[in-house]
Structures are given as structure tokens and as C-alpha cells.
Amino acid sequence: MSSLPFDPRRSAPARRAAWRGSLISGLLVIAIVAWDRVAEPWFWAAALIAIVAGGWLASPRAESVLPHRDSGKDARHSLAEALLANIPDPVILIDRRALVIEANAAARALLPALRPRYPLSFALRDPAVLDGIETVLHSGEPLKTLYALRVPTERTFEVQIGTMQGAPATGGQPNLVLFLRDLTSAKRLETMRVDFVANASHELRTPLASLLGFIETLQGPARGDPVARDRFLAIMREQALRMTRLIDDLLSLSRIELHAHVPPTTVIDVGPLARQIVDSLTPLAGERGVTVTLETEPPPLAVRGDRDEILRLIEKLVENAVKYGGEGATVAVRVARAAPEGVRAPQIVIAVADDGPGIAPEHLPRLTERFYRVDPASSRQQGGTGLGLAIVKHILNRHRGRLSIESEPGQGSTFRAELPAVVGESLPVRALPPATQSA
Ligand code: ADP
């Protein structure tokens, strides 16, 4: 049996609807009495029945599945409501006709059209989910299905549909509960992982195929040709070096990722590290007719950092400027302090500027993606792996730093890495700089 229309256990809107129905039927009765001036006892009994029936008819049907509460159960019910509200994933409770009974805040935020007592399909029209509900209703067994949202952004949810014991007032009829779990970031990560493996294999396969080709040629048609052999061996060496660079960068990236959650603790001076990199890249710059200058503010330019990673970061930026700056370019490396800005603490800035061909604006947001290159052929020709700026970004993330890139076609490029400065702490003796100024 369902509850009475004015039952206090019903929700406020349901009771209001019941009172509205009773009022209308009451007014009707009074109108008839006033018309006929009938005041027989049987008439008043019939009027009372009409009032109750009016309230009954006006009260919504889905309400009947709300659980009955007594004072003991009240506390449990509000506890359950509070629990539901605090579950961060969307949860929806529906009855056997798929009318919504209850939905938590996360579900209402995801599906704004969800309304108590209205069909679930008004808010969630996915055929897989609606079929899943049918299946669970027939089998009584829980099941999982996927729900894909296209707008406002593409999102994928795993929907777990299960039965939940109904309230005694519904004759123990089970309700259904839908738990939605957001798989969007997990899926995105999985896609990135698959793309990464595919890209890395492709990058390795190309030089490997070339190596195998030359080995076969040297074993076959070029067997007795010393000139061809020397030429091919030089190319094979270049291809092997390319594979080595790629493997080194892949290992670097995975090492940095492994420690991504461990902030560095050692205080180091960035000035001498920049000097070390500029010195080591001078021969490469000379080969390409590029001039590299270094300017550092007076020491110490202290940051909390991993020495090897900071060396690698500067190396990648300077190497890129030398590689892509072009014949006769000038690369200016500057390490300086940046004063605090608003809530931002003081920073140490490593700026690497070149006067090369620059980069078109549409490429700038993607430069730190793994294997992203503006011109893949020129990158490969320069010995690039497509991982340099991805490594720079990961190192900066671990050091709570940031990278900004300014570039315009024909106007050169400036890559600026910022790291939080350490102020008022002494440096370990090993890191104290020799007197370094401009080069
Ligand atoms: P790569 O190994 O190809 O150099 P990076 O991740 O270091 O990979 O750089 C990504 C791309 O960014 C490069 O392929 C190149 O097209 C572009 N790039 C990086 N630095 C510069 C620069 N200083 N000037 C012009 N283009 C640059």
C-alpha cells in the first residue's frame, strides 16, 4: 500500500500538491452545498471522501517509492543524504520505471536536466545506459556500460548500474542506482601512451632500416668497393648516433618523470652551469658559424634544483638556438634575477635568444609536446629527436618553474625558463661559482 497524501514522510512538494487537490475538491463540495443547500449526514461523508480522494489524485505517483521514515530512520536517512552529497562522482537513484528519485550534486552538475520524479531519459538519453537499465531490471544482476558525452567537451564515463533494496513502503521493490566514473583523463593518458610508443618505435625504425639497408649493400653489390664502403660507414655511424640520441632522450624523459613528484632539495648556482654548457657547445656553434654569448648577473643565482637536470635544460635550449638559428646567427644566453611580481616570488631567469628564422605563432603552443616539430625534415637533419623541449618542460615542472616562448617569423626566438630563486641561503661549497661574467 502507498502512503496517505498528507503523510509527513512525503516530500514538501508532494504534500503541497495533495493540499492543492483537497482544496479544489473542498471548494467544489462547498459550491454544491451552497447551490442545493443539502446538509444530509451522508453528503458530508461523501464530501470528506472527495477531499481525501482529491488530495490523493493530485499527489505525484513516483513519490510513493520514497522510503518511509520513523524518528530512528530519520537520522540514518539524513546521514545517507549527506553521504550521497559528498560523493565526488555522479550517483543517481531511479525507480523501476526509470523515474529519478534522488541525484547527488555531482550528477546534477553533469546532467542539469535531472529532476526528481521525471524520467531519467529526459537528462540522459544514451541508448547503452537505457538498455543497461532494462537488462538490470530483468536480470537483477549489476552491469557496467560506457556513456560518452560530446558537449560541451568530450568526456567518457563508466556507468555501473546495480539494484538497491527498495523501501518497505514500496513492498520491497528494488530501486536502481547508477554510479558514474569519469574515465576521460585515464583515456587521454592511454591515448598519449599509445601515441608515444608508436612515435618512439617509428623514430627508431627509420635509422634501423637505413642501417640494415647499408649492411646488405656492403655485404652484396658494394662488397669490393672501398670508396662506397667508407661513404656508407659514415652514414651508418650517423644513423647509429641518431638512435643513441633518441634512446638517451627517452631515458632522460622517463628518469625525470620517475622523480616528477620529488621536489629537488639541493641549492645550486645556475651561473656556472650556464658557463659549462656554453663552453661545451662552442665547438658545435663554431662548426655552424654561430656566435654564442653569455651574460650572468653577479653570483649567486641560486635555485633549489637537480644539477644534472638544470644542465640538461640549459643544454637543450642553447643547442636548439644553435641548431635552428642558422648560419651566422648570434645566440645570447643571459642568466638574471627577476624581481617578485604580485604574489610571485623572485625568480632566476635563463633566457636564450637567437636571431634566426623564428617560429610561426600556430606552432608555439605545441612545441613542448613529445615529437612535435615545426619542420620534421630539418629537425632530423640537425640531429633533433623531437623530445628536447618536452624534456625542458618536464624539468621545469619538477622544479616548479615555467617556460615562455616569444618568437615571430623573421625576428628570431627567445626561450625563457624561470625557476623560483632561493634567497638568503648559503650554497654548498661545490656549487660556488668561479668569477663568471659575460663571455
Ligand atoms: P628537436 O629535437 O626537433 O629540436 P625540440 O623539442 O627541441 O625537438 O624542438 C621542437 C621543435 O621546435 C623543433 O623541431 C624546431 O622546429 C622548433 N624549435 C626549437 N627551438 C627553436 C629555435 N630556437 N628556433 C626555431 N625553431 C625552434
What attributes does this structure have?
alpha+beta, Helix Hairpins, 5-stranded mixed β-sheet, binds adenosine-5'-diphosphate
Instruction: Give the helix proportion (percent range).
Output: 40-55%
Distance between the termini: 92 Å
The number of domains: 4
Residue share in β-strands = 15-25%
**Shape verdict:** elongated
Query: CATH topology of the largest domain, anyone?
Result: Heat Shock Protein 90
Tell me the major beta sheet.
5 strands, antiparallel
Q: What ions, cofactors and ligands are bound? A: adenosine-5'-diphosphate
**pLDDT < 50 runs, ≥5 residues:** 62-69, 431-439
Let me know the number of strands. 12
Q: Looking across the biggest beta sheet, what order are the strands in? A: 2-1-5-4-3
Q: Give the second-level CATH assignment, the architecture of the largest domain.
A: 2-Layer Sandwich
Q: At the fourth CATH level, what is the homologous superfamily of the largest domain?
A: Histidine kinase-like ATPase, C-terminal domain
**Whole-number mean pLDDT:** 86
> Could you state the order of secondary-structure elements as H and E?
HHHEEHHEEEHHEHEEHEEHHEE
Structural class of the secondary structure composition? alpha+beta
- Give me the number of helical elements: 11
CATH class of the largest domain: Alpha Beta
Radius of gyration, CA atoms, in whole angstroms: 36 Å
